[in-house]
Amino acid sequence: MGQRVAPEGITACLFDLDGVLTSTAAQHMAAWKQTFDAFLREHERERFRPFTETDYVEYVDGRPRADGVRQFLASRGITLPEGGHDDPPTADTVYGVGNRKNDALLKIIQEHGVTPYPGSVRYLEAVRDAGLAVAVVTSSENGASVLDAAGLSRFVQARIDGLVINRQKLRGKPEPDSFLAGAKALGANPAQAAVFEDALAGVQAGRAGGFGWVVGVDRTHHADELRAHGADIVVSDLAEILEGVTP
Q1: Domain spans of the chain?
Q2: What is the torsional sign of CA 102, 105, 111, 117?
Q3: How far apart are CA 117 and CA 104, in angstroms?
Q4: Residue 21 in contact with residue 116, Cβ under 8 Å?
Q5: What pLDDT, on a 0 to 100 scale, did the predictor assign at position 246?
Q6: What's the rounded Cα separation, in Å, for the pair 104 and 89?
Q7: Which Gene3D superfamilies match (predicted)?
């Protein structure tokens, strides 16, 4: 394994999906904004304040869908009944609002497709050629379909997504459970695994899990926050690692 791919001793790479491998983070942000703005217009009325990118980064990005609903609405002093995973999108429950967002996301993806970052594809190819194992660790329940649509499934040996997180009752990011499950699925201990994340909650999870290398991917100009939450290095594109960025 060359030093241009990862530090010595790293045998497994754990990649977040949206915003790290694919450009779908922007589509998630748009779906959350559409969902929350409609909800807030109804519930805040004359006090309506729109959902912002800052809200997305602080309360939603990288977290399981229901956690994002709870965290953001709590920031506005709103509490909803939990409901259940199968609640209809029309239900004013935590899971109902989350399912509303998912419907919005699927429509956006259907209209615009899924594009992998070219630099991420280059890095995945280099990781594969170096013989490192690859897992995708994402809070999204649409992980399989997004990987397929982006043509990235061929690189991935294990997938820990929102469906697995729910089924195994794993704590979501910023807790390290999903990354630990990804490392285990690849037969690696945390010290042998690298985490690649664009979300503050994600790099925090990587640091909390004691992973050997935590890479922050800065797509939205918050490099300082990524470092503060636990990133060993911060890059704007994964291809930079191949060009000599070192920990």
Answers
A1: 12-23+116-242, 26-112
A2: negative
A3: 23
A4: yes
A5: 54
A6: 10
A7: HAD superfamily/HAD-like, Putative phosphatase, domain 2
Alpha-carbon span 101 to 30, nearest angstrom: 9
How is the beta sheet containing 133-137 ordered, strand by strand? Answer: 158-160, 133-137, 12-15, 193-197, 213-217, 233-235
pLDDT digits (tens, 9 = 90+) for 81-98: 999 999 999 999 999 999
> Residue 233 and residue 173: Cα distance in Å, rounded?
19
**What pLDDT does 245 receive?**
61
Distance CA 99, CA 89 (A): 5
DSSP helix, strand, coil percent of the chain (3-state; round to 5): 50, 10, 40
d(CA 13, CA 185): 11
Would you call 7 helix, strand, or coil by DSSP?
coil
- Superfamily grouping for domain 12-23+116-242: HAD superfamily/HAD-like (3.40.50.1000)
Strands (DSSP E) along 85-222, which ranges? 133-137, 158-160, 193-197, 213-217
- Which residue numbers are catalytic? 16, 18
Tell me what pLDDT residue 240 has: 96
- Candidates 3, 6, 21; CA nearest to 202 is 21
- pTM for this model (two decimals): 0.81
Say which residue the tokens 């690859």 belong to: 134
193-197 vs 158-160, strand pairing mode: unpaired
